[in-house]
Amino acid sequence: MKMLNNSKVRRSLLVAAGCLSLVGAVASRQVFSADMATAAAELPLSVRLSPSQYRQSIIDIFGSSINITGRFEPETRTDGLLAVGANKANVTDIGFERYDDLARGIAAQVVDERHRAALIPCKPKSAATADDACARAFLSAVGRLLYRRPMTENEIAGQVKLAGETAAKTGDFFEGISTSLATMLVSPKFLFRYKTYEPDPAKPGQQRMTAYSKASQLSFLLWNSAPDDRLLQAAAKGELHTKQGLFQQVDRLIYSPRLEAGVRSFFADMLQFSDFETVSKDSAFFPRYTLKVKEESVEQTLRTITDHLITRQGDYRDLFTTPNTFLTRSLAALYKVPLVERTDNGQPQHWQPYSYQPGDPRSGILAQSSFVALHSPGGRSSPTSRGKALRENILCQVVPPPPGNVDFKFIQDTSSPTHKTARQRLTAHATEAMCTGCHKITDPMGLALENFDSSGSFRTAENGADIDTSGDLSGVKFDGPAGLFQALHDSPAVPACVAKRAFAFGAGRLPQTSDAQWTQIEASFKDGKYNFVNLLRQIALSDLFYSMPVQVAAK
Amino acid sequence: MRVTKLLSRGAMMVLPLCLFSAPSFAETRGYVIGWFSTATYNDFQNNCPLDKNGGGLKLRLRNLMEIGYSEKEALEIINGTAVNLSPDINKRINNRAIVNGKPVPVPNYPEAVRDPMIESVTGKYAYGFDLGGKSDQSKFVDPDTNEKIDNQLWRAVGCTESYRATPPEQPYPEELSWATLIDTAPGWAIYLTGENLDKDGPVTVTTDRLLQHLERDANGKVMPFGTYVIDPSPKSHNVFQGEIKDGILTITPSKLYMKAQHPFYLDIALTNAHMRLRHEVDGRLTGYWGGYLDWQRYAYMYTSRPANGADYIGLYHSLRRMADANPDPATGKNRDISGTFRMEALPAYLANIDGKVIAPAFERGTKPEKLASGQ
Questions:
Q1: Confidence grade of residue A345 (pLDDT, cut at 50, 70, 90)
Q2: How far apart are CA B291 and CA B306, in angstroms?
Q3: pTM of the model
Q4: Is B6 inside a domain boundary?
Q5: Element (H, E) at B339
Q6: Mutating which of A294, A342, A457, A458 best tests the B interface, going by the most B Cβ atoms within 10 A?
Q7: ipTM value of the model?
Q8: Domain's final residue, options B72, B100, B117
Q9: How far apart are CA A437 and CA A441, in angstroms?
Q10: Which residues on A lie below 8 Å from B223 (Cβ)?
């Protein structure tokens, strides 16, 4: 099993090695190549760190004063999540250059005069010469956190040597440290999480995930970041292989404020918030949808989610009906609700809690701009896109793509004198036989959201015609957004979907739903009144979460 | 006995107030003023048939001639100058005023230099109100009401190039200041209260200054439906009794004072203040404010900021000449000038300092007041 190959990892490693000269030190190439060969041979499964995981890891290791500026490799969505797509992610030549830029920037800041005293645990004998002992102390400590396991003696020796040679050439100890650190930051050992397995002594003939892989999987599920020192210590002591030890660590991670980062990252992935990078609205029609409002709409939803699920320990399903949210004055203007802020002139806007009155159609996270604006083109709403997103993101269903020769003439003609509303346009469009099938799946849900224009602002009429927001979900009929949100709240498919996605977010793959352990996790979620934090705990404590993927085991 | 007298006198004083504040107003609509400028009527050909004032080049020519160059010499200097005059010439132009025998900056002593007698508006039309001005010759006709009106401010400034602006363009010096200050200076609010603001009837119009500056939308204009807190200071608090008739809102003339911020107007201080407003289909409230204002405070907008491109000396003297009210008892010279401003207001939620929303934003059709929850 250890020799199991992963061609994409291998390719990324080769690319990394090929581009190593960008880091600058010739000696590092040898170290890196040796590491690469070891990694490719010994590490069977890899998951590329997402941009948010990369950032969070750097912040957790070096502190939030380190600026992380630059672009990352594009991500791929699989089974509804980028976290699953990361299993197949590679590093391209250009991507490696980007990682190299990021690495150099970070390493330079870590050793600069502002940070070195706090981040480097020893003072070199001379700032102008190499100091192997000091370099070893820093690089081995940092390397353990970056690689999420202790460095091997070979790895440490290679990095110390590189630091020493660079210091000798440049006459600068810190330049040497910076070069080594930059090399480690472009190493696949940092950029990829490796899942490694070993024979399970308790179950002869079976494999179990190694303790350090477990620590990583756990940490990235709950914190969206690398394991901290205590988790790595627990892994080193073998505690993660015991029920009690695992329980202790899971609870420690769950009760940490860093859980919020994990929950935010999961929902940002599930709700496709990375797609906001390309969202824009026609300012002639939606002047209140500013860049600031766009960014704040995402934050609004994530605040609503973490407040409801973590602070209030609420029922996951209530996210779709909760009247409670958070707003800034700009967002309140978009939603046309009053939000008083009594600060002096010129003060920045603050987030304030806001509650809609019972039954208000703007209650729930799906009424927020982060959903309705994300799934709408720039100039009009799209019941079909919104319905598709509801099916795929909230219900974990698959909607087939439209045929290549689909005719959008009715849909796009928003100035039609006869088809004033989206419902009228879609009705005309759906008369074409090849379109009808899919639109039956998406439109009855999406049309219920027509009270929200492309930007997320509330409306009751379109082009002067009253909007009809009736619809149905699996036979449950409703009228308007509030009805749709209640139908989703009551649908058993909704909590089932989030459970699968949460598992996949941490494991990088969907669960085997036929597995008895999965049935137990689902039942526990239901019995615990759909408490999402408890769901994460059950996933993190289950053997299923750390088990070898079926396809891999079969090989 | 004395107490009884006082009480009865107090009751007599309260009674009229009760009588006039009796209507049970059912509706209030809040707005913030998102556009405000001197009201222009841009018909240059008919307004300024002499085309005497010219633009920046003519102004530069006049300035050079003021410091002693002949027209020919001045033209030679201008033609040999890429963009700016030399620092030395600029200094001489700026310090050409002589006070107590010493050269002093012209913007600080505009009265110390000769009136260049810029051309003033001689056209028929201008926006405004009949303020009771007695000189029939100085009256314009308002193109909206066809009534004779007083607007000597427009007569004074309307033939300068900066004021050849048709809304939504603002006169350049005012646009420059407004666009700068909108992101920092507290905004202005106006709110209407009435039984049914879609119908004719009595209305109370209130204006106030805000604590916050205005938010911009994606087009750089003022964002509607924002929430703002009204400055509790009574300084800019004005309440007017008004009436909607045939869809047009007017007020009983009164005083108006709105604190502003340099380098925009120092303030808008009107006596005999009039308003003529109307609801637009898109939800805005648009119209005119007019009355008599201190011409020197208005002129200070130019003279305090001479780099804004306006002919500040020409405007200063023109305003002085056109001033038509409030003569100084000592000198007999008029201190005020009749003028009118155009404004556009956007729906906004207005709250008092205690955080209570006292005027909701209004949008026709969506009835947001039924959907929005209070805080």
A1: low
A2: 26
A3: 0.85
A4: no
A5: strand B334-347
A6: A342
A7: 0.82
A8: B117
A9: 7
A10: 287-288, 290, 330, 333
